[in-house]
Amino acid sequence: MKIGSSESLQYNFSTIKAATNDFSENNKLGRGGFGVVYKGKLIDGTEIAVKRLVGNSQQGDIEFKNEVLLVLKLRHRNLVRLLGFSIEGKERLLIYEFLPNASLDRFVFDQTKRTLLDWETRYI
Ligand SMILES: Nc1ncnc2c1ncn2[C@@H]1O[C@H](COP(=O)(O)OP(=O)(O)OP(=O)(O)O)[C@@H](O)[C@H]1O
Prior knowledge:
Main location: membrane
Strand content: 25-35%
Helix content: 10-25%
CATH superfamily: Phosphorylase Kinase, domain 1
CATH architecture: 2-Layer Sandwich
Bound molecules: adenosine-5'-triphosphate
GO molecular function: ATP binding; protein serine/threonine kinase activity
Distance between the termini: 30 Å
Number of helices: 4
CATH topology: Phosphorylase Kinase, domain 1
Largest sheet: 5 strands, antiparallel
Protein name: Protein kinase domain-containing protein
CATH class: Alpha Beta
Order of helices and strands: HEEEHEEHH
Binding site for ATP: 51
Shape: globular
Subcellular location: Membrane
Strand order of the largest sheet: 1-2-3-5-4
């Protein structure tokens, strides 16, 4: 895939800013090793999870785009789907499909819920 064809997967920063209510505290879903994750809703109603990568990345725009395009090619039922990305100035956002059930670890490490996931199911 060429960089040129990435444009449709590239979202305007302002679109995502609006979708997350300006990265509001109320929309915060959690924090991971790469930044804070916010819940958002696009104009068409699609629910998204936006990962706002933490600053001082030395990675250039082209390298970032290439890496994102590589991940966009991955499709697996057990992988959360990356919908696109956004770049503006030092801001780098990754846009994922929203998963209502939060992360799997809540199931695997929860005393009650872990019984719902037997090992046979976990291997699928
Ligand atoms: N697609 C999503 N839908 C709903 N919630 C999400 C989604 N992605 C992440 N989250 C929430 O944001 C939190 C942080 O996610 P993130 O993927 O950044 O980190 P992590 O997987 O917990 O840790 P690490 O970044 O260290 O691997 C998750 O624990 C989850 O609650």
